[in-house]
Amino acid sequence: MSTDAAPAVDTLLAPLTDSCKDLRLNMSTMLRGSGIDQPTTYCSAIAVAYFVGAKALAEALRADSASFLSAEEATDAEAAAALMGMTTVYYKSRELLGKPSYSQMRPSLRMNRMMSPVSRQKYEAASFACAAVAACPDCLKSHEAKLLETGLSEAAVHDLLRLAAVVHGASIALGIVN
Fold first, then answer.
1. Which sequence positions are flagged as catalytic?
2. Number of folded domains in the chain?
3. What is the value of pTM for the model shown?
């Protein structure tokens, strides 16, 4: 299953057993193209890989995207993963508690980095994909609205959900063989 587009990812996923073949194929399909441009796809995939602690996968994705994703955009993916690691816990937990009083309280968590990404659309896509993995309803709704404001279609947002699921699944599959 080698695609010229993702040799580092292909090499990393090659040891996956037949029980995880679907993840290999789905990753290849998602990275080859969907309703999302390639830089946004890779930026989001990198963020999810970091978000779930799959550093080797994140590094392979970075290597395969080096010719079209700037270092600054890759840094945005790192920032999105780290900040979403904090915010998804906070907002999801607050929602799970279900008390209106918590919704009235200020988070008082520093999130300034999200205010100045290189690309708003790529940053929001990366954040949305991480929110999907965390299953944080408030985060998903907030980042989906921002993505739609940037001109991304609902079909593209749906592709981001698929991408997040595939990267998450691939990271689990890699944990099985390593």
1. 136, 139
2. 1
3. 0.93
